[in-house]
Amino acid sequence: MKLFLIGIGIVLVMSNCEGQEQTQVQNQTQVAVNSLDIHKTTALEVIQTTSYTYLRVKENNIESWLAVPKMEAKVGATYYYKGGVEMKDFQSKELGRNFESVFFLGGVSTNPDALEKPAQSASSYTSTAKSTLVKREINVESAKDGITIAELFSNKEKYEGKTVKIRAQVTKFNAAIMNKNWVHLQDGTEHNEKFDLVATSTKVFTVGDVITITGRVALNKDFGYGYLYEVMMEDAE
Predict the structure, then answer these.
(1) Which residues, including other chains, have CB under 8 Å from residue 7's CB and lie 6 or more apart?
(2) In a domain, 109, yes or no
């Protein structure tokens, strides 16, 4: 099973997203788990949603909930992980359920040796980062004093290095990759068939939420192994 996480050294800041349709986690406590220890757990329960797999696991007679990008998982299986982001009092809108605590991870592994290998390049995350982008049927009203994704792509040089505000829908979220969380955004606009904006953040976002987000515009960011972003947003809040 492929591993999609580097759950080490995550620094979290309380969310400053604006507007009524903010991310669920704005007023929730976020705790970075920086332990280098590998956790060995047994899955007691598996809940599948559109974008996430929730695992109720047991480790040393202590039960906890994990959330990872959607994967095949089985009750009774052994999974290993390290790092992650703890969300307290987390509400899953899709499940209509409140969790006292959920650890969000980039992924789990059935092989503990995989966690010991350095994962400093983007090659470990090919399945996550290089999946085909699909333009969604979205029509989001622009934020006050903000810009659209089409405006950003059409005037990218103008906005390079500047902080911009965009209101859009979260279409994809991947946690703890290269020590960052990665969110894909669409607002229904496009320029030259470019409609998807990638942002990095320390926040946890929920797919389907409409959010107002601010961040610094960066151009031609090359993370190696074909991970080149013409336009992206960094340090998003």
Answers:
(1) 33, 81, 82, 83, 84, 85, 105, 106, 176
(2) yes
* pTM for the whole structure: 0.53
**Residue 70 lies in domain:** 30-116
Q: Count the neighbouring beta carbons within 10 Å of the beta carbon of residue 180.
A: 18
Domain contains 17: no
Per-residue pLDDT of the chain (237 residues; tens, 9 = 90+): 433 333 323 323 223 333 333 344 333 434 444 345 789 999 999 999 887 899 999 999 999 999 888 889 999 999 998 877 778 888 888 888 999 999 888 788 888 887 765 443 333 333 334 446 788 888 999 999 999 999 999 999 999 999 999 999 998 887 767 677 888 999 999 999 999 999 988 888 888 889 999 999 999 887 654 567 889 999 989
The tally of domains found in the chain comes to: 2
